[in-house]
UniProtKB/TrEMBL annotation:
Active-site positions on this chain: 181
PANTHER family, A to Z: 3-METHYL-2-OXOBUTANOATE HYDROXYMETHYLTRANSFERASE (PTHR20881:SF0)
Keywords (A to Z) from UniProt: Cytoplasm, Magnesium, Metal-binding, Pantothenate biosynthesis, Transferase
Function: Catalyzes the reversible reaction in which hydroxymethyl group from 5,10-methylenetetrahydrofolate is transferred onto alpha-ketoisovalerate to form ketopantoate.
Claim: Iron is one of the keywords in the record: no
Protein name: 3-methyl-2-oxobutanoate hydroxymethyltransferase
Cofactor: Mg(2+)
Pathway assigned to this chain's UniProt record: Cofactor biosynthesis; (R)-pantothenate biosynthesis; (R)-pantoate from 3-methyl-2-oxobutanoate: step 1/2
Homology family: Belongs to the PanB family.
Localization of this protein: Cytoplasm
Biological source species: Luteolibacter flavescens
Length: 261
């Protein structure tokens, strides 16, 4: 069950090994990543950019998320399926619980939301409803428009202390893990050492957190138009996809059609 899988990931804080999380938005990718033994599949709202073609995550709706959570859940992965809340879908505790239930009904086994101290009451309410919650601190993509861009976090002592306060508030509210996005490596390491739940880093340095998350398209090279500087691609599939389509075109156009030979 979701709570059991989430508890097992929480225990990895001390037992290890590091937690592996990848985003997945569809059935085949979920099956393939699950076959690789990945611990958690995040149906992230990065969906908006890398699958739906929007400029940022602020265009993603709950309906988009439910559609893709359901596709991933149909793979019946051993991995924990985490459904991301899209922007504006957790304005208060009651709405957050209601929408968490929709994500779970679609097949999510846990949910994720952005923010710290200000979200603690929502996290507590969702956890009390029996749904595991993953936190998300540091750079928060849903705030990109207010912040005027994607900025590194945890640069100053003040920012680092605020980050730790946020992380502690989430841990006390009952999250099983916290994603740390675009946090200065030293700060990510420090926050990780000060809290009781695993941190899952992205763009926050290597081996600074208790695990890592990567966006699927960054890992396999299927979104070549934007690759974040911290991405470590393990495959470069875009040229192979183009080559396959081009080979198909050659085969179709160069095979004499019936009656033309
Ligand atoms: O939506 C997403 O892919 C995420 C990860 C970057 C953590 O939130
Ligand atoms: Na996200």
């Amino acid at each position: 069950t979701g709570p059991e899988k989430a508890a097992a990931l929480l225990a990895r804080k001390h037992a290890g090994p590091p937690v592996t999380m990848l985003t997945a938005y569809d059935y085949p990718t979920a099956r393939l990543f699950d076959d690789a033994g990945i611990d958690a599949l995040l149906v992230g709202d990065s969906l908006g950019m890398v699958v739906l073609g929007y400029p940022d995550t602020t265009h993603v709706t709950l309906e988009h998320m439910l559609h893709h959570v359901a596709a991933v859940a149909r793979a019946k992965p051993k991995a924990l399926v985490v459904g991301d809340f899209s922007i504006g879908t957790y304005p208060d505790a009651a709405t957050a619980v209601a929408n968490a239930r929709k994500l779970v009904a679609a097949g999510a086994e846990a949910v994720k939301l952005e923010g710290g101290v200000a979200q603690a009451d929502k996290v507590r309410a969702i956890v009390e409803a029996g749904i595991p919650v993953c936190g998300h601190l540091g750079m928060l993509p849903q705030s990109v428009l207010e912040e005027g861009g994607y900025k590194k976090k945890g640069k100053t002592p003040e920012q680092s202390t605020a980050l730790l306060e946020d992380a502690r508030a989430l841990a006390e509210a009952g999250v099983f893990a916290i994603v740390l996005e675009s946090v200065v490596p030293k700060t990510a390491e420090w926050v990780s050492s000060q809290i009781s739940v695993p941190t899952i880093g992205i763009g926050s340095g290597e081996h600074t957190c208790d695990g890592e998350v990567a966006v699927a398209t960054d890992l396999i090279g299927t979104f070549p138009w934007f690759v974040p500087p911290f991405a470590k691609p393990e495959a470069d599939l875009a040229p192979q996809i183009i080559a396959a389509a081009a080979a198909y075109k050659v085969r179709v156009q160069h095979t004499p059609a019936l009656g033309q030979s």
